[in-house]
Each structure stands twice: as structure tokens, then as C-alpha cells.
Amino acid sequence: MGDFPVVETGENVTRQVLADHPDLMVVAFRFDAEGAEGALHDHPHVQSTFVESGRFRFFLGEEVREVGPGDSFVIPSGLRHGCLCLEPGKLVDCFTPRRDDFL
């Protein structure tokens, strides 16, 4: 296990890989301002999201869900998703298999 860099992914949004293995990756996303966005995207990985802090509006396919500290959910492979930060905070995501594009 090594130290992974903090990477800017958008305005007021950063990510940092916390741990990785070919079968699983844990990543922290920090949103530093209300209105910061996690752009809509999709990927073949199954993703779980845990809200460590803050409040977010998630767009999961046709569903819109507001989440806060302690909430968690799973995003299936291939589902178009993204989020809008309502209150600054941190998301902890797990991906299986790992996101090699994050390394």
C-alpha cells in the first residue's frame, strides 16, 4: 500500500485513492463547496457510495435521491450517474473491479 496523490476532478472536487487491489478499490471524493458537481458518467464497475459528511443530490439513471451522513447505496454497472453537492463533505466510494483509470 502506498500514498496516493490527491487529484482535482472538477471545480472544488478532489479524489484520492485510499486502497486498491485488482478486485476492489476504495476512493475518497471531497466536495469543498455547495454547487460542486460530480459530472454525469457511467462505467462498467459496480460502485458503492458511503456519505461520510455533507449532503448530496444524486442522479441515478432516472432516479433523484438526496443523501446525507451515514447514507450508503450501490450503483450498478453501466448506470449513468452523478451528483450535486448541497453541503460540503466527503464521499467514500468502492469500485469492483478497481478503477485502473484512477491509478
From TrEMBL:
Family matches, as Gene3D superfamilies: Jelly Rolls
Pfam families, sorted: Cupin_2
Domain of life (superkingdom): Bacteria
Cupin type-2 domain span: 34-87
Membrane-spanning intervals of the chain: none
Name of the molecule in the record: Cupin domain-containing protein
Gene source species: Poseidonocella pacifica
